[in-house]
Design a protein that fits this description.
Mean pLDDT: 90
Structural class: mainly alpha
Number of strands: 4
Shape: globular
Largest sheet: 2 strands, parallel
Radius of gyration: 13 Å
Distance between the termini: 43 Å
Number of helices: 5
DNA sequence: CGTCTGACGATAT
DNA sequence: TATATCGCCAGAC
């Protein structure tokens, strides 16, 4: 079972991700105080409801871990696009859209 | 316990 | 860029 505190902290981190930016599972876990717990972040997000922008969390390869065939997978991609995030095929450029907490500079060209 | 699986990650080829 | 491998950790069985 995942410690409720862990879920709370993970979701708190996710809520800081601004629109148009994406974070990786490992990044969210680390920022929440659980380094090397990427999978834990995944479970925490699974338990997330409305109010937390869970769609802005993808894997380190820049791909949505949720299947593009699943309803949730399509919803995630749809919401990211709505945020202004561009896909190159199934992949998002972390170099351009990766969330960098300290200096959230505008998207470079 | 051993094994497998998963909203994962890093490195090598 | 895509695969292969291995590491990692919690649950399910």
């Amino acid at each position: 079972m995942i410690p409720p505190l862990a879920i709370e902290r993970m979701l708190a981190v996710v809520q800081r991700i601004p629109p148009g930016r994406v974070a990786t599972y490992g990044q969210v876990a680390a920022l929440a105080g659980y380094p090397r717990r990427a999978r834990l972040a995944g479970q925490a997000l699974h338990a997330a409801g409305d109010g937390v922008p869970w769609h802005r969390v993808i894997n380190a390869a820049g791909v949505c871990s949720l299947s593009a065939d699943s309803p949730a997978g399509r919803l995630q991609r749809e919401r990211l696009r709505a945020d202004g995030v561009e896909f190159r095929g199934e992949r998002v450029s972390l170099a351009r859209y990766g969330w960098r907490p300290q200096a959230q500079a505008p998207v470079l060209d």
